Amino acid sequence: MRIRISSALWKEISHSWCFIISDDSLSPPYKYPTPSQFAALLHFFFFFFTMKLVALALFLAAVAAADGFRVDLIHRDSPRSPLYDPSSTAFDRVRAAAERSALRPSRVARAGLAASGDSTIEAPVLPDTAEYLMEVELGTPKFKVVAIVDTGSDLIWTNCKPCTQCYEQTPPLFDPKDSSTYRDLACDSQPCDALPVSGCSKNSKCEYEYTYGDQSEVVGNLASETFTFTTTGSDAIAIPKITFGCSHESSGTFSNRTGGLVGLAAGQLSLVSQLSSSIDSKFSYCLVPFSQTSATSKLVFGDGSGASGNDVLTTPLTIQESFYYLTLNGISVGNTNISAASPAASGSPNIIIDSGTTLNILSPDVVDKLGKEVKDLVDLPVADDSDLSSFAACFDVKGSRDYKFPVITYNFEGASLKLDPSNSFLEVAEDVVCLAVTTSSDIQIFGNVAQQNLHVQYDLGAKQLSFAQVDCTTF
Hints:
Elements: H1 7-21, H2 35-67, E1 69-75, H3 90-109, E2 121-123, E3 132-138, E4 143-150, E5 157-159, E6 183-184, H4 190-194, E7 199-200, E8 206-212, E9 217-230, E10 236-251, E11 260-263, H5 271-274, E12 282-286, E13 297-301, E14 313-316, E15 318-320, E16 323-326, E17 328-333, E18 336-339, E19 351-353, E20 360-362, H6 364-377, E21 394-396, E22 408-412, E23 415-419, H7 421-424, E24 425-429, E25 432-435, E26 437-439, E27 445-446, E28 454-459, E29 464-469
Parallel strand pairs: 2-8, 4-11, 5-10, 19-27, 20-26
Antiparallel strand pairs: 1-3, 1-13, 3-4, 3-9, 5-11, 6-9, 7-8, 8-9, 9-10, 12-13, 12-28, 14-29, 15-16, 16-19, 17-18, 17-22, 21-25, 22-23, 24-25, 28-29
Helix pairs in contact: 1-2
Organism: Ensete ventricosum (Abyssinian banana)
Pfam families: TAXi_C, TAXi_N
GO molecular function: aspartic-type endopeptidase activity
């Protein structure tokens, strides 16, 4: 920051200082500063004190960035969410989440492949199947956007004016002309080079087109803008020059109650990657159980309250096509260990950890064995309703008061994570409890039910992921 002081003012300040410390001013008859000298001194002290406050604010901001900052992570079914449907029951929401999980594997498996033409790429998230949202403010003055949060996507984007071919968005559109900090990025800029596929307008502005798994798409200009996040405690932190997509066309199955997406994957354009130098390449989250509607999950950028102690489990983290992969060696239930790795690929990354999928999704062979073992261990009637066929095992708990479900251990490389029944079973209908696992031959996913009440930290620099058991309602 540069501060300029006019030569006239500096002369007055200099004369005033010289006057104060001169020998003549310390001996009778005493001399006093002239009104202009006194005003100059006041101006100087005010300037000096203001600069001290600015320096302190900048220092505190730097400390906050170094230690990390937290924002609210809003579940789509929370009363705080614009997607919240008060007419839905808890059972309706669980069943809907299971249906969304079933759509996720095929989208993830196809991610990174060209959808059509030379200017499109396919992104994994299915627009209206988001599980978590966050609020962010763009520009100067600030403009609030409620956006999907996705650990499987890179690009940050929001709908912008003019939006000539856009889905009907209920919240107002961001107008880049109203922001003094908005800048379009050029075709030869580094962020434009980071796009998997990019175009160039007649006036040399970088353009993008993303096509999603259900053929929804967004088209717009790549730009930079100041992003402001409201942190825990209602403080705010403003981060300038965040690269994002200003979409002028959007179509498909997007919810008209949201206005964009924040990517937390490992690609260069994700929010995590753009903040990497100030957050030590770390981010984490703590997801509250679905039943705790009065509490809010947290997303932490940087160390924050980093997981530590003897109870922390650490496993290698591998990044493939911007997804976060772990190595799952097997699953233990009762006295049985079920292998989750094929003999030919033993010790290789084989499961994605994903906050945007509700259920755990495992290969058909693993699901068959796991479902059988759980049924053998649980002393309850099996619920065989055809509507429950997507779950690995379901039980009729009607009339049972002291029923017990087993602890299930996911044996990741170097980390055996024991999941309590609350992380493995869901009540999906009245008197019906199901194992929160479904199957897919496309890909395996470790979903968000299994991650509730865990502090899950991604250390991209060290390429490791850690789990720590915590109460996320008080995190």
